[in-house]
Write a structure and sequence with these properties.
The chain has 74 residues and is mainly beta. The protein has one domain: RNA polymerase II/Efflux pump adaptor protein, barrel-sandwich hybrid domain (OB fold (Dihydrolipoamide Acetyltransferase, E2P)), CATH 2.40.50. Helix content is 9%, strand content 46%. The protein has one helix and four strands. A hairpin with a 4-residue loop joins strand 1 and strand 2. It is globular and about 30 Å long.
């Protein structure tokens, strides 16, 4: 089920995946999500959010992407 199926949200870019790692920091942490075919998306979120959402390796999650700028450099 997509996150938007339970709550209306403006982000249309939704990727289903599985958490492969959670790293806690003093204020922010990182959550790595495998979205398939060897592609891993990394999200930097507050450590408080990681704890409140009880994010753990192996959890099935939806990655929502809402960005006004996406930069690519070579």
């Amino acid at each position: 089920m997509h996150y938007a199926d339970v709550m209306k949200i403006s982000a249309r870019n939704q990727l289903q995946g599985t958490i492969v790692s959670v790293a806690h920091g003093a204020v922010n942490g990182t959550v790595k999500v495998d979205i398939g075919n060897g592609v891993v998306v990394t999200s930097s979120i507050t450590d408080e959010a990681i704890n409140e959402l009880d994010l753990r390796e192996g959890d099935k999650v939806t990655v929502l992407i809402k960005a006004s700028d996406v930069l690519v450099a070579k």
